[in-house]
Input
Amino acid sequence: MEHDRRRTRAWVLHPDIKSDDQRRDPVPALEEAVALAAALPDLDVIGSEIVRLPRAQPGLLFGSGKIEELGARFAENEIELVLIDGPVTPVQQRNLEKAWKVKILDRTGLILEIFSDRARTREGVLQVEMAALSYQRTRLVRAWTHLERQRGGLGFVGGPGETQIEADRRAIDDQLVRLRRQLQKVVKTRTLHRAARAKVPYPIVALVGYTNAGKSTLFNRLTGAEVMAKDMLFATLDPTMRRIELPDGPEVILSDTVGFISNLPTELVAAFRATLEEVLAADLIVHVRDISHPETEEQAEDVRTIMASLGVDDTRPQLEVWNKIDLLSDEDRQAVQARAERDPAVFPISAVTGEGIDPLLSEIATILQGVRREEVLKLGFADGNKRAWLFRQDVVRGEKQTEHGFEITVLWTDKQANQFAGL
Output
């Protein structure tokens, strides 16, 4: 049974390298790495620590003295897996595994493992498997029998053992070819679904943000849905959409998306692009931030960087939601409220208590009222081209024939109205 499965004893290391120009504050970085590890049910994190280094050693990452010291600690605690919060080269991975006699997983491998464990949609599963195979192909230090696994996850944590490199490479390449073919079929299906959604006469509001910022909690409060919402990194992976009616405003489609994270593995960017197509098509983007987090500014910048790389431009209407104000001290809360009052696009809220939700919904309604509006057009029988254009735009909600032509009810944007006027 699931609860009887033995958990892998793991230790988390965060290398704090002085020569790294992009160095983050090591304390919250280590906390995030531990939280990532805790997101995998198969792992039991026994310990964690920051390892300060003047520079990374090419072959072993750490110095020989530190390797010996850590090795003794791992042996004493019967550690089976060491998670290193940062990039580890294939050579460093092999050498450290030999020195410590444990399995090594770097940040990219850990995130891929979590994504594999959480992916539910067919496309999500395929994208993550392709990302993981592309990542592991350069390493070839694991057995690939997990490609026919029955349990969730990619098997890096509990993989069976070594196999010949040639067999590994063949298995990976064959599997990549099969996955690409399967993905092409899924992409065609998704295109049809997206075309069907385009006909839905509701604006789309997309929730985005750093992982664990509270997007799913906010989504559940607004929609009454029961999307998984835990104090856990990547609790939500596959996007969820629900229709809601704003008070004194239009009906909208609300989309909850996967959370972002710093140092996102490049192998996963394609998977993100697939799951975030709802964001690229959204009429309004709501950026949810955990304002109580000590690195909330850095997290927000990571989100903006990834959004830009995915093709979301600055012209798209956006709001910032500063969530979790219920976790702030009275003094910090007053400071946050004062900052937010100076920016009309910022809304301090608590998705847990509901504080600040009403002003946020009112602003969303105000923005979206101008996105699509209903109008009745009268066209003559000779206006066949205009009528055909309206149907191609999927803006027609109703039509009736009169003595002189057609009365067509449309729901469209100002941009579409201007385009129609120019026909």
About this structure: The two ends are 66 Å apart (CA to CA).
